[in-house]
Every structure is written in structure tokens, then in C-alpha cells.
Design a protein that fits this description.
Bound molecules: iron/sulfur cluster
Number of strands: 14
CATH class of one domain: Alpha Beta
Helix content: 25-40%
């Protein structure tokens, strides 16, 4: 049977396939080796561009080396998360929101998925290490009979390590800005779960069905709070379940995930994320699998918890309603790139990019009577062969001649609002000659 035009476009010859696979193996070997190598902390220590930020993504590139070619899932993403704020990342499915967050956690599906360039700067509290790479404990002191301050000794004559409020050992810490994109996997383990934690999309598939809720909560405690006893871990886990609004925390602690409702499971996920008081919570579509009333409860809970722990939230969603309710700042992504950023007010009251305007128009409203809902025409371009002009051009209703040229640069339209589109100019730029849409 003759091949259709579309089939021909995606056809890969045997020699082409061999070439792709050879290139992929070479690239994967290189990036895997880079992740496993032992590097001095100075090599991934960096500085924040703005001291008020907790995270700064800077020209991040995350690619997937597939048999059909290289998928540029995140292709030059730059934005920041100010401390104590909620940043909503929005866009259609497949635009790179989740891969951006997985890059931040160093959880991109390897070996095919790799961070290939750019930086993710994060302000972390790290353990100080001695010359042999061991953590340095803080010891209890006391005053002896002669009035001198000396180390407190236990019955065996060993120095007593200071304990924190949870019962874990206290170690010497240092504040350091690290580049997660360059950090070796081993060093990342002390940040993931303790400093940054993630609430995944579907709690039923994220929780392990063969372990009780208690087991899964305790595991995080044992991993990140050294020196804590079994009883203390259990008490802390139950306390976290209580904090996320579970009425019978002792009962739920003993249950398996399948015995809980969707809302309860999502609360458990939030409890796991909060266990070590993280600075940043990444919530990847935390309400997608839930019904509307539970959605509202979970969003209220996230807001409350953010205040309690004084942390920041990176909220990933395709639901503009959720973003409008929760976010201080909004980042709009399309086909692996950031196309518009601004405060929630900028994006919702004065959207600029035709894609953002299209997203707003596709939102159902209760006060307008319409025969059919608006939908943005066309599809996101094939991520393997991205065009070298504006990625939205083939779907854009306001396309101009210029749009077939280079990819538009980011322009700052106001103090807080930036967009990558030829329709707009820098806030102080001279007015441009009127150009008609084509
Ligand atoms: S640059 Fe051109 S094609 Fe792209 S969104 Fe703006 S107007 Fe549309």
C-alpha cells in the first residue's frame, strides 16, 4: 500500500536509524559519565543573579535521545522563583512543564533523558564535611566545676551529639548556591527530599501499593533525619498526617494506599513532601486526578502549608483557574520554551502572547453563553524537528511577515511582564511602523 504524506515525513531509512542510534549512544555515554564523576563542591558552587530568588533556571536544555531523533523537551528555559512565592507554570500537555520540574529534581528519565546545558541555581543549606567527606556533628557542651565549657560525655566517655526538635543529630551546615544541572547524582541526594520535594500528579501510581502509608512516610524520615529513633520517626509521620488534615492519622498510618480515597492519597503525598520542612515544593498537577471539591481543599491546604513552612511553591498545571487562585507569578511555556512571564495580574488581566490569549479564551466561563468552546487551532509542532521560526506561527491568528524569520527574542514590556513575540517591543523602544497581520 502506498505511504501517505505524513507517513513519508516520519519515515526513517535504515542508515538514518543507524546514524541516530550511534549518535545517541555517544551522547548518552558522555552525559552519564558526567553525572557519575566525583567533583569538588567548588565545581558546582555558583552565585544567584538575584539574592531574593530561591531558584533560577538559566537557559536550561533537557533532551531525550530517542530512536526517531533528539526530542528537545526543554529548549532554553529561563525563569526564577522568588523566595516565599508561588510560581505557576502553565501550558498544554507536552510543552515541557513537567520535564523542567524533573530537571530541577534531577529525576529526568535516564539514560535517554539528559540535562545537556544551562544552569539551575538553587540556594541550599548543605552539610559541612571534614577532609574525609564526613558530616561534622555539633556536640553538647556543659560547664564543669571550674567554670570551663567542656564537651558533655556519655556513660562510655563519648561526646554527646546535639539533637534537634525531632530527635535527629545536629550537624554543621553552610548556605551555598549550587548549580543542580552540574551537580553529581550523589551530592543531589542530600538536597532532594530535604531541601526540595515534589508532589506528583497521580498519588495512586506514585505511592508504593505494597507498603503501608506509615512505611512510606517513615522512609523519608530515616533517609534525611540522621540519628532519629523508630518511635520519633513514627510520631513525626503521624504529626505530618495530622498537619495535612487527615482526621484519623494513627489509623491511616497503618493503611495501604488502595484503602484510601483519591483526596486522602493526595494529602499523604503532601505529608511526604513536607516531612523534612523543604524550602521549595514542586507540585506537578497536584489536583488533576481529584474531583472539584477535593481540588479546592487541596489548594487551600497548599496555601496554608506554604505560610506555615515559609517556603516557595512551583505549581505546574494546565488549569488556568488553579493558577489564578494560587500563583503570585506565572510562566507560560510552549513547545519547550518560555513564551511569556509576569505577575498573575499581568497574565490574567493583560495577556500578550497570542498563545496565552488563546489559552484564556479556551477557558469555560459561567456568565457567557456560547454554542461551542474556543480551541486554539492546530497542534504543538513535532518536537524532533522544531522549525527555526516562532514555534507558534502555524497556529497563530496574528502572524506577520517577520514571524517566518528568526525565533522572536524575549522583550520586557513592563517592569514585571515579558513576552517572546514580534507583536511587542521593549518598554523604552521607539514606536514601530504599523505592520499588518498576514
Ligand atoms: S511571533 Fe508572530 S507567529 Fe509568533 S506568536 Fe507572535 S505574532 Fe504569532
Amino acid at each position: 500500500m502506498a505511504k501517505t504524506e505524513n507517513e513519508k515525513k516520519h519515515y526513517i531509512s535504515r542508515s538514518e536509524s543507524k546514524r541516530i542510534s550511534k549518535e545517541n549512544s555517544k551522547a548518552i555515554r558522555y552525559y552519564e559519565k558526567r553525572k557519575k564523576r566525583k567533583v569538588a563542591p567548588e565545581e558546582y558552587t555558583t552565585e544567584m543573579k538575584d539574592e531574593k530568588n530561591v531558584v533560577e533556571f538559566d537557559d536550561l536544555h533537557t533532551y531525550f535521545f530517542s530512536d526517531a531523533g533528539t526530542v528537545k523537551a526543554v529548549n532554553g528555559v529561563s525563569f526564577s522563583i522568588p523566595a516565599g512565592s508561588t510560581v505557576g507554570v502553565v501550558g498544554e500537555s507536552g510543552c515541557g512543564k513537567s520535564v523542567t520540574s524533573l530537571s530541577l529534581m534531577q529525576l529526568v528519565q535516564a539514560p535517554s533523558g539528559q540535562i545537556v546545558g544551562g544552569s539551575i541555581r538553587f540556594r541550599a543549606s548543605l552539610f559541612k564535611r571534614d577532609a574525609r567527606g564526613r558530616k561534622i556533628p555539633v556536640y553538647e557542651t556543659e560547664t564543669n566545676e571550674s567554670g570551663e565549657t567542656v564537651f558533655k560525655l556519655d556513660a562510655k566517655g563519648k561526646k554527646v551529639v546535639k539533637k534537634n526538635a525531632l530527635g535527629g543529630n545536629v550537624y554543621e551546615m553552610e548556605d551555598r548556591v549550587v548549580d543542580i544541572a552540574k551537580m553529581p547524582a550523589e551530592a543531589m541526594r542530600s538536597i532532594r527530599g530535604r531541601e526540595i520535594s515534589m508532589i506528583f500528579q497521580e498519588p495512586m501510581t506514585s505511592l508504593n501499593p505494597v507498603f503501608t502509608i506509615g512505611n512510606q512516610l517513615d522512609e523519608v524520615g530515616y533517609l534525611h533525619i540522621e540519628g532519629i529513633t523508630k518511635q520519633q520517626v513514627k510520631e513525626h509521620s503521624i504529626e505530618m498526617l495530622r498537619l495535612v488534615g487527615i482526621a484519623d492519622p494513627e489509623g491511616v498510618y497503618k493503611k495501604f494506599p488502595h484503602e484510601l480515597s483519591g483526596g486522602m492519597r493526595q494529602r499523604v503525598m503532601i505529608a511526604i513532601a513536607l516531612l523534612c520542612n523543604p524550602k521549595l515544593i514542586v507540585a506537578d498537577e497536584p489536583t488533576t486526578a481529584l474531583d472539584v471539591t477535593i481540588q479546592a481543599q487541596i489548594l487551600d491546604l497548599l496555601r496554608e502549608i506554604k505560610k506555615k513552612i515559609n517556603g516557595s511553591i512551583m505549581l505546574i498545571t494546565h488549569d488556568l483557574g488553579v493558577v489564578a487562585e494560587m500563583a503570585d507569578y506565572v510562566v507560560v511555556m510552549y513547545a519547550g520554551k518560555v513564551i511569556e512571564t509576569g505577575t498573575a495580574e499581568d497574565i490574567f488581566d493583560h495577556p500578550l502572547h497570542p498563545y496565552t490569549i488563546g489559552l484564556q479564551k479556551s477557558k469555560p466561563t459561567v456568565d457567557a453563553e456560547v454554542d461551542s468552546l474556543y480551541c486554539i487551532p492546530g497542534f504543538v509542532p513535532n518536537p524532533i524537528n522544531m522549525p527555526n521560526y516562532c514555534y507558534f506561527r502555524d497556529r497563530c491568528e496574528r502572524c506577520r511577515e517577520q514571524c517566518s524569520g528568526e525565533y522572536p527574542a524575549f522583550v520586557q514590556v513592563t517592569e514585571t511582564h515579558s513576552v517572546a513575540c514580534y507583536l511587542y517591543r521593549e518598554k523604552n523602544a521607539a514606536p514601530e511602523k504599523e505592520e499588518k497581520d498576514v
